[in-house]
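Quick illustration, no need to memorize.
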Amino acid sequence: MSERFFFTLHATCGKARTGTIRMLRGEIRTPAFMPVGTAATVKAMKPEAVRATGADIILGNTYHLMLRPGAERVARLGGLHRFMNWPRPILTDSGGYQVMSLSALRKLSEEGVEFKSHLDGSRHLLTPERSMEIQRLLGADIVMAFDECPRADRPRDEIAASMELSMRWARRSRDGFDAGAEHAARAALFGIQQGALHEDLRRISAERLIDIGFDGYAVGGLAVGEGQEAMFGVLDYAPDMLPADKPRYLMGVGKPDDLVGAVERGIDMFDCVLPTRSGRNGQAFTWNGPLNLRNARYAEDSGPLDPRCTCPVCRDYSRAYLHHLVKSGEMLGAMLLTEHNLSFYQALMEGMRGAIASGTFPDFAARFRRDYLGRS
């Protein structure tokens, strides 16, 4: 049994799965939601507060940390875990998402991607090998292969060519990761399935990744504007193409109802900026749907944010006070709503884990949709 990375499935309910990933820095309970710490911080939260919400792992961003403060500097300062005071597992994305999101600032080639920094205009070449090196310098526990993430609405021939490029980069990522022997001995590498909305391209991608061999597999190229119905259409088949004994990670997702639908279809891991970004913009997620605390209806509402939530925010603060903080632009409002939102997301994951373990996940999902979406 490997101490570096070991995934155990405890129970299934339909396609939904619950299990544990064991790593040297701790265990990750699945289904798992990873708060996003783009620049070595989960915005508006102290690391110990993030852990108190129930998070087992967080995500860091290779591209942004490469630019500021720099991977080499983080390494000199003892690695990302020490730098940001998070002693538990960290997953770092590869920089591949920025190949799409910063398309106006990059030049793509077989070698990699040349970026023009959005901070100061300096130029940087990000290749599979450099991405592995940066993630190694950061000290990531779970490293993501370098890929290209095209928008789903691109022509099929472009999607196919992009997928083929990503599979060549996946092989180079594997080789680059393995070259960092000391880091590779205590970290894990995930491959990323591409192919947008095309089932045949997804199958080819999965077969190529399995042939290379990874510790876990991500479903990439979704949550890029295709909509929930199309995303679920892909998830009806894409996870089944990946090994059942490895974790399956849906990148960049999503809304609470996205998470429930994806778990129904066999996904184990998620990340998204939504709970933190929404918290900074006055939106709270509750078991009865999202609330906009800017709304005047909450100005004299003395009730808790969510009566079913047990987080410190719902215990100690009223909707009226949170409305006041948001309307006044006070930073405490962003802090409290972010804490609540992350607590809600972790409670949702805990609820799904328990329902899968007890064989009642369909009932859990139906109740969730009734209360959160108002659907019978």
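The two ends are 45 Å apart (CA to CA).
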